[in-house]
Design goal:
Helices cover 19% and strands 41% of the residues. The chain is built from three helices and seven strands, in the order E-E-E-E-H-E-E-E-H-H. The chain is globular and about 40 Å long. The two termini are 26 Å apart. 28% of the residues are buried.
Length: 151
């Protein structure tokens, strides 16, 4: 068997000192977690397209990636899965409050740093806080870092 990590994408969006997060229940009965708008890369889409799609599906906001924040590898002991996360920083341009959010997403909301720190026990993974720390530290890489070839 060939081992492969799960490729995920995430959007780190800060506006007026608050970060856009989702409150989600990934599996029934698993509890409520906080995460950035994030999810698995779909077949046939670029990594950047995946981040745009996931943000819209999970928050009803249109996301415009402006830079690569980082690439993160994390192994979840809970589910014994390794994730390779591509995180983008950027801005939102519009919001559709009537849009139905993805299954498992209870709500999307803006949270201040104090709130985020206070709820660290509810973060879906350590990547939530690490991405915010990297954003605050000013980590920014050009989008041209990633190349997508269509067949």
């Amino acid at each position: 068997m060939i081992w492969k990590p799960n490729v995920t994408v995430a959007a780190i969006i800060e506006q007026n000192g608050k970060y856009l997060l989702v409150e989600e229940e990934p599996e029934a009965g698993s509890g409520l977690f906080l995460n950035q708008p994030a999810g698995h890369l779909d077949p046939g889409e670029s990594i950047m397209q995946g981040a745009i799609r996931e943000t819209l599906e999970e928050t009803a906001y249109t996301f415009v990636p402006e830079y690569v924040l980082g690439i993160y590898q994390w192994h979840s002991q809970r589910v014994d899965v390794t994730y390779l996360r591509f995180a983008f920083g950027g801005r939102v341009t519009s919001h559709d409050p009537e849009r139905i959010l993805d299954h498992g997403i209870l709500r999307a909301a803006w949270f201040g740093l104090d709130e985020i720190h206070h709820m660290i026990g509810r973060h879906r993974s350590p990547l939530v806080m690490q991405c915010i720390r990297d954003h605050i530290a000013g980590k920014r890489y050009p989008l041209e870092l990633l190349t997508y070839y269509e067949s």
